[in-house]
Design goal:
The protein has 155 residues and is an alpha+beta fold. The protein has one domain: Immunoglobulin-like. It is 17% helix and 44% strand. It has two helices and ten strands; from the N terminus they run H-E-E-E-E-E-E-E-H-E-E-E. It starts with a helix and ends with a strand. This is S-protein homolog.
């Protein structure tokens, strides 16, 4: 009877360790930093299409990762890759700002939510999420490679 109990304890510890390892690795960021029960990598690209001589500044964060502040020149982009949380809870927000004729234009926007975006983004594998900052707002790319305006700037 003791060997069965020890075998059950060892099996339980082994399974628990595997689950903890899996959950621990599900929200790691690389590069700089769903349907339920799926682990899928994703990439977010924020593009500056504000016009010549307009620099977009962004500061992006998730619960676990602070990607820092970045200045993006016109027609350039900032991107990062990560692995979604197993239950689709990965969430990234970016504070963005720029100056329109010396007047501050800004906003704080959700740029990625795993449960919403994991299957909505473009790319051959559906995991590339392109966000475009334009003079009138922030646009998200759809699967058909068109863009839809999602947010207005605060002026």
């Amino acid at each position: 009877m003791a060997s069965v109990t020890n075998s059950n304890n060892i099996l339980f510890v082994f399974l628990l360790t595997g689950v903890i390892t899996l959950l621990w690795s599900c929200s790691s960021v690389s590069g700089h930093s769903s349907s339920s029960f799926r682990i899928k990598s994703a990439r977010v690209i924020v593009m500056n299409t504000l016009g010549p001589n307009n620099t977009l500044t962004i500061h992006c964060k998730s619960k676990d990762d602070d990607l820092g502040e970045h200045n993006i020149a016109f027609n350039k982009s900032f991107e990062w890759s990560f692995t979604n949380h197993i239950f689709g809870k990965t969430l990234f927000w970016c504070r963005m700002w720029w100056y329109d004729h010396r007047k501050l234009v800004w906003g704080s926007y959700r740029v990625y939510k795993g449960s919403d975006d994991i299957d909505r983004c473009s790319g051959t594998d559906g995991n590339t999420c392109v966000r475009k900052a334009q003079w009138d707002g922030v646009y998200f790319e759809l699967k058909d490679n068109t863009f839809i305006k999602v947010y207005d700037w605060k002026r």
